Amino acid sequence: IGASGEVPVGAHVLVSGSLSVGPEDALVSPRLVTQPGAVVGVTALLLGRPAGVTIKALNRAETLLVPRHAFLKLLNQSPELARRAADRTRRELLDFMDAVTPFGKKISKE
Questions:
Q1: Phi, psi values for residue 85, rounded to 5°
Q2: What is the spatial distance between Cα 24 and Cα 55, in angstroms, rounded to a whole number?
Q3: Positions in the chain short of pLDDT 50
Q4: DSSP-derived secondary structure letter, 110
């Protein structure tokens, strides 16, 4: 659905199925996304940068692609949605940092 290193053209809303969202390396376990309505790919979309994670369908999955321009327009029109997107992005970044911090400490000791 989306590869690490690619600049996303939009966010994906899960309609059905299961997705795996995570980095390509084996240091961090991917996150399982199964709830219909879940939005994936938001962080890279908001930053306008290449994605740091790969999004894969684990089975037959259906997603709805929301183009970047439409997503950003929606955020501008809905302060509540923008706040929730920012909170989610913050949580995802903190989760990622928590996951990789032990590896950084281990590498710096060697």
A1: -65, -40
A2: 10
A3: 106-110
A4: -
